[in-house]
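Run log // design_07
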């Protein structure tokens, strides 16, 4: 189905903000509404995994950005200014049951499955995931929609 990402992200940001009482900023850098061919339910699940992590591992506002890269691929960024992930842990966080000790001491009570599930959903939807993080500064997850998502009905 074609999803209007501008509407989808506006609604998702509102829903998450109301459910968790956390400020979510949605910033679209697109000139027009962006449509993408994907599975809306699965995309929502993916987005909420990243929003939930941003909520758990930061205290400030969370930002969702919609943009295009230089290959004209659509990007969704989810950014937090939280505890971040150090560079040696970064490749491991998508593994099943992997949690960082420091994060565990924050008593957020997860089991380490969120990101491994996210990886599986992203693969099924043909979405590339990029994770950038600096310890003590924050984390940005990027969803990259390649050209296959552009086949408008
Ligand atoms: P759950 O099973 O409830 O999702 P979890 O959050 O521990 O638990 P993952 O979502 O798989 O599991 O994340 C794995 C680990 O990666 C986390 O324990 C945390 O240490 C780290 N992490 C994930 N997202 C962030 C983030 N936005 N900021 C800092 N650390 C993060």
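design_07 sequence
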């Amino acid at each position: 189905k074609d999803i209007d990402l501008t509407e989808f992200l506006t609604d998702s940001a509102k829903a998450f903000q109301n459910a968790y009482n956390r400020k979510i900023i949605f910033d679209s850098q697109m000139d027009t509404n962006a449509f993408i061919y994907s599975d809306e339910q699965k995309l929502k699940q993916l987005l909420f995994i990243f929003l939930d992590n941003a909520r758990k591992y930061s205290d400030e506002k969370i930002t969702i950005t919609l943009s295009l890269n230089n290959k004209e691929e659509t990007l969704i960024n989810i950014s937090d200014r939280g505890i971040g992930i150090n560079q040696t842990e970064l490749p491991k966080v998508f593994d099943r049951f992997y949690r960082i000790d420091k994060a565990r001491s924050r008593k957020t009570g997860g089991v380490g499955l969120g990101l491994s599930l996210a990886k599986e959903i992203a693969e099924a939807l043909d979405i590339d995931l990029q994770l950038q993080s600096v310890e003590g500064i924050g984390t940005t997850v990027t969803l990259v929609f390649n050209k296959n998502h552009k086949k408008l009905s």
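The beta strands are 2-4, 24-28, 35-37, 62-68, 74-80, 127-134, 138-145.
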